[in-house]
Amino acid sequence: MAEIADGPPPTVREVIDRIEEEWEALQRALAPLSEEQMTEPGTGGWSVKDELAHLAAWARGLAALVRKQPRYPPMGLPGGAAPHTAGIERMNEMIYANNRDLPLPTILAELRAAHEDALAAVAGLSDEDLVRPYDDFQPQDNRPDGHTPILWRIAGNTFGHYAEHRETISKMWTAK
């Protein structure tokens, strides 16, 4: 989960700025990579393209979540595929299977569209919404951690997620 400093909750503007900052850092990490580098599987089996499809799916899910829409179908997952029922690893395997044969340009376009969709969804929130619990947005999920502020999901599916996978992508190509 992405780190969020102790203290007063950030504003929506601050969250959007953080999302954009990490998005730009991700874009800088991708810029020097060739299509071949982006599609070659790494030691864990996923390519950069697969990492990006993963980011796109979770950003789509976040956009639906904060709009109070079912979050798993926009990710390409069955409606009941919540982390506490299907498990995160299984969900990620399904996302991988759904996207592994798609061409890189399709994945790049989807990532950009998913990022823009997540940004727009977050921009539609109020500052007070950031500290509202997950259950206020997705009561049908019945998550054991549904009491946690939605800010944690925003961080974990945008700026924190971008940073995590940017580091993974950078490590894939600095070791070679």
User: What radius of gyration results from the CA coordinates?
Assistant: 16 Å
CATH topology: Four Helix Bundle (Hemerythrin (Met), subunit A)
The percent range for helix content is: 55-70%
What's the name of the CATH homologous superfamily?
dinb family like domain
Number of strands: 0
Shape: globular
Our measurement of the CA-to-CA distance between the termini, rounded to an integer number of angstroms, reads 28 Å
Number of domains: 1
What's the story with the biggest beta sheet?
Answer: none
Judged by helices, strands and strand pairing, the structural class is mainly alpha
Q: Architecture in CATH?
A: Up-down Bundle
Tally of helical runs: 8
Instruction: Detail the poorly predicted runs.
Output: none
CATH class descriptor: Mainly Alpha
- Percent in strands: under 5%
Order of helices and strands: HHHHHHHH
What would the average pLDDT be, to the nearest integer? 90
Features:
Four Helix Bundle (Hemerythrin (Met), subunit A); mainly alpha
List the topology elements:
Elements: H1 12-30, H2 35-39, H3 48-66, H4 88-99, H5 104-123, H6 134-137, H7 150-157, H8 159-174
Helix pairs in contact: 1-5, 1-8, 3-4, 3-5, 3-7, 3-8, 7-8
Describe this entry's structure for a reader.
The protein is mainly α and 176 residues long. It has a single domain, classed as dinb family like domain (Four Helix Bundle (Hemerythrin (Met), subunit A), Up-down Bundle), CATH 1.20.120.450. The protein is globular and about 45 Å long.
